[in-house]
User: What shape does this take?
Amino acid sequence: MSELRGACIIGQSGGPTAVINASALGVIRTALDTSCITRVFGAANGIRGVLDDKLYDMDQEDAAELDLLKFTPSSALGSCRYKLADPDKDDTDYKRILEIFQKYDVRYFFYNGGNDSMDTCNKISKYMQKAGYECRIMGVPKTIDNDLNGTDHCPGFASAAKYIATSCAEVWQDAHVYDTGMVTVVEIMGRHAGWLAGSAALASLTGCGPDLVYLPEVDFDMEEFLADVKEIYNRTGKCMVAASEGIHYADGRFVSEAETSATDGFGHAQLGGLAVMLAERIKKETGAKVRGIELSLLQRCASHAASKTDIDEAFQAGKTAVEAAVSGTTDKMVAFQCSRDGGYKCEMVLQPLDIVANIEKKVPREWINAAGNGIEQPFIDYVLPLIQGDAAAPTEYSLPRFAKLKKIVAK
Amino acid sequence: MSELRGACIIGQSGGPTAVINASALGVIRTALDTSCITRVFGAANGIRGVLDDKLYDMDQEDAAELDLLKFTPSSALGSCRYKLADPDKDDTDYKRILEIFQKYDVRYFFYNGGNDSMDTCNKISKYMQKAGYECRIMGVPKTIDNDLNGTDHCPGFASAAKYIATSCAEVWQDAHVYDTGMVTVVEIMGRHAGWLAGSAALASLTGCGPDLVYLPEVDFDMEEFLADVKEIYNRTGKCMVAASEGIHYADGRFVSEAETSATDGFGHAQLGGLAVMLAERIKKETGAKVRGIELSLLQRCASHAASKTDIDEAFQAGKTAVEAAVSGTTDKMVAFQCSRDGGYKCEMVLQPLDIVANIEKKVPREWINAAGNGIEQPFIDYVLPLIQGDAAAPTEYSLPRFAKLKKIVAK
Assistant: This one.
């Protein structure tokens, strides 16, 4: 494979995680150190930055500040939720992207995101191939939802899982302090896949885990739920529930949606508020003191409690993407191939973008208990190695010291 | 002062904090090491444990497990919200307490709690004096609300403040990631005093702080609030608000109560839900995407992010209480006297229980800006030294390793 000289662009897309910037750093640092990559650009707000010709010049950033990306949550370059059209129907955006690639002689494009981002990546890659423009295009995975196909797990998931488990253990302590009854419901992100809600069960390893865990992989039944809570509450005086925001009835309606019927501006169900709603139902049913807690954005940006394993793997994913592209690879997403027997090992592999995009990987049904209100040991064995190690994130004034980038727009 | 030989009881009361157990450890460890203290009991669920003759024998606990109390949130001995009657009207409880004290030859009583607990402590102390039963009674302060009179600050406050500031900084990163508009409202505990909500402003030291901060010390005006948010949102496309759950209108009605009119079983306003409510109002007014985040129990039990200064001071407060009692002191609460000029120093002093009980210390008006929507530098200078240092809490499986006490009930 002949050496391909040219500039590179790194873009970030979709919802933030605690470690997506570690992946960006993996790309940026490796690209800056690679001689055939002539310039390194960060796209402002993902693919929007390419369309708007707003590219940050990463060569002008201070190296020490860049290094802090490893411990800076959310997407430092900015994100977007922009969906590219089907190029066969409308290729306006693609022509514009090609134009910008040509303008800056971009020969490497790295896109750091989740499901939709891999779809974007895939579409751009196919378009460039068709247009005969040589550009190596690589996906770098991230998503707290852990629902990408073709990879053992996704960077960002483990840090959220660790935060969720830690918070549940702490809340358990708090919720068990009085000699009076108390039911606590913790609402956890995850619209279609229950990886995060299931991770609440890790808290049981501390002796302080939820009594009941509900994932969207199993149809929710309100009567059974209330009976389960009542049984535990009547027996022990306490009950702690962890529930995915995406739990739904057998007919597909989200539980939160069915009860509140709130929709966002586009008519989509706006999730959230589930914890409070379930808590109110329990209160009506049992008379118990209740508390609904929504972990909200906290669970995806808590870099102070990130998993070191997650940070390191996220960085490695970015690094691998650049190394693979420079070696001639294109049209692939970096993925993790892991073994857990005889100690955890994680190997970087490459997966075709086609098999990643638009498929949601869910928790296997057999990893959830038969009653659908708890998880089984294989789930724990799967997640536990991923949350190991503490971030040891740098601080200033004993508060997080995030990267402060100059973000100088390239001319 | 002659040596007083006898048993001691330590009880915990009121809402949990991340470090109240560090104070309990300060008491227990020091008492165990003090020869004139013959036995060390932990009251199950505060004063209720005394009334119910349910005392845990601390001598039977494993020393290493006890040490973990330094990093275990919530009240390990259990808490209560039991209010003792006025002894002049009904002395039933006091007679019972005296009976238990006599049964176990209790000569030292340490009560670890907030405002109401100091009142309990004070009433018991006065009753024992009147009854001619020699018992040295000491209050050990705790409250995340930081509203105890007679002390520079309260153990538990700083760890909550640190968690709040850290979380706000992280959420800021998340809330600024898209190129579309976004308004975030973070709801923080504190019914009458704004120490915790004000601490959100510490996040500004990271470059990622709230734009607007509302404390209960200033009457809230909905129209002004919406105008403030709109101005910032229109100018920058984002706005982050930190608000105390206890903000109220000029007529005294809590904002959350006035809008939702929810009450608890006793007819008291049930606070909470403020963030979501304010976010909805902003959405209606501006059309902005909004997010309401309630820090809920998380802020008071996040031992994984506790302040080392807070832990150390909490421990020291417990230790000092025992040392002072053994030296002949009674009827006092351990308090902090601090200086900040030329480096932070914190000295343990003793305050009469009378001046502590039933007075709520509020944020000085001049520490809040004139508009009542932000805080001034003296507030930062006050809080910042308190949050210094990381807990370095022990972990197992990279999850919190909390103390596991045997809690053997004394015969």
